[in-house]
Amino acid sequence: MWRVFWIFIFLGLIAGAAGWLADHPGTLRLDWLGYRIDTSVAVLVFAMAVIAAVTAVLYRFWVELRRAPRRILSALKERRRQRGFVALSQGLVAVASGDVADAKRQARRAESLLAEPAMTQLLSAQAAQLSGDAQAARRFFTGMLEQPDTEFLGLRGLLMQAMKRDDQEEALSLARRAFELQPKSDWVAKTLFELQVRSQYWVDAEKTLQAAIKHKALLPADVKSDYAAIHFQFSLRASDQQNDNEALKHANAAHNLVPAFIPAALRLAQLYIAAGRPRKAVPVIEAAWVHEPHRALLECYWSATQSGDAMARVRAAQFLAGLNPDHLESRLAIGEAALEARLWGVARTQLEAAVETGATGRVCQMMASLAEAEHGDRDRAREWLMRVANAEPDPVWVCDSCGNAVTDWQAKCGKCDDFNSFMWRSPPRVLSLPDTNQGQKMLNHEAEGIPLVDAQEAPQ
0.70 cut: is pTM over it? Predict the structure, then answer.
């Protein structure tokens, strides 16, 4: 609105000036080169305005004429750039769809149109990877290292290649460089950590976790279990170096980080017992049993509580089981101790409750021991032994990444090399035809006078 107001004021001023000149025309005489011109001031002003307008138009035309070549070239370059971006996007689509020929063609087209290696090298490298040309891909990724904008992408590509060909040393070097460039990248932090633990560089791995947490690439809660596993490895290394104090310190750190981490709790308790401090081991085992009962903890608890005779073991097992009474392992702990103490009623109560919870192979074997030991009922014992082959599998350490099952916890999976991936649980059950050979072997042992099951040697 103000703009319209000022336009009206300007037009008013012009009209006023024109009226004033009309009322005061005056006279003007010009003598130049023998010519004489007589006119009014108003005509002179009008003529000067026309000359100024024509001059302005001619000047503008001249400026536009001079700028035309540059504008035409700029328009051509922009059009070429747009065609290059189209080729780049189509090349990425071709890579995603697995079209090797089209990916290469679009990469060459984008490179010729854009003439910007920083933008086209990634597409060229991916096209080379898609066609299986690792050398060409490596060349493109290496070229990307020369530009700050593409250095990280080049490092990532070279790192993936090094990991694919299992070049641990080069992969570690590239991962360290990538982590220095992008310390906030969770992918880089996790990759560097995995490479370090695979090489058993435990100190470097711990520093990587600390740096990743500092830069908020990883959350402390997400790496607590890995921290515990690293301290567990520190404890093992300290024991190898005959440094009992360091071994105990790191085992205690691992247990405090994750009280449910059975290997750390078991190791800490064993170190306390070996150091002549069994009373310190008791609360460690009890705390671990609350989180995750485990057969190995029971044996350690008997040692820590100095339960030498069978009845003492029953009392210790009952107290420990009371910390997690509904767990299957708690019932089996009492059942095992009761079998050894020949308390058949107590053993039967716990084992029958365990059968209702889930008749695993270990439960079936213990029921067979009870039937034979209490009543000498070999037929009933034989029935339970025949059920072992088709019973639910007992818990073992199972790798979450590949399903590899082992009896003892390991820091690294021997099958997929993943770190801290073993969990204590029942392995997947493989459906197959019943295997009667195991039961037949047990019956053959029975005929030869070999005891069916020793309660103290039940599988863990």
Answer: no
The one-letter code for the residue type at 412 is: K
pLDDT of res. 84: 62
R_g (Cα) of the chain, nearest Å? 43
Please state the φ and ψ torsions of residue 410, each to the nearest 5 degrees: -130, 145
Determine contact, residues 327/442, Cβ cutoff 8 Å: no
The first and second tokens of residue 405, run together, are: 């099952």
Distance CA 97, CA 228 (A): 43
**Which strand (E) or helix (H) includes residue 28?**
strand 28-32
Residue 412, strand partner residues:
419
Distance set, CA 19 to CA 22, 44, 46 (Å): 5, 15, 13
Are 346 and 318 contacting, i.e. CB atoms less than 8 angstroms apart? no
Instruction: Measure the CA angle with vertex 86, ends 84 and 88; round to 5°.
Output: 70
Q: Identify the band that residue 134 occupies on the pLDDT scale cut at 50, 70 and 90.
A: confident
Please report, for residues 49, 107, 362, the alpha-carbon distance to residue 292 in angstroms, rounded to integers and kept in the order given.
99, 56, 18
Q: Please state, in angstroms and rounded to a whole number, the distance separating the CA atoms of residues 82 and 342.
A: 87
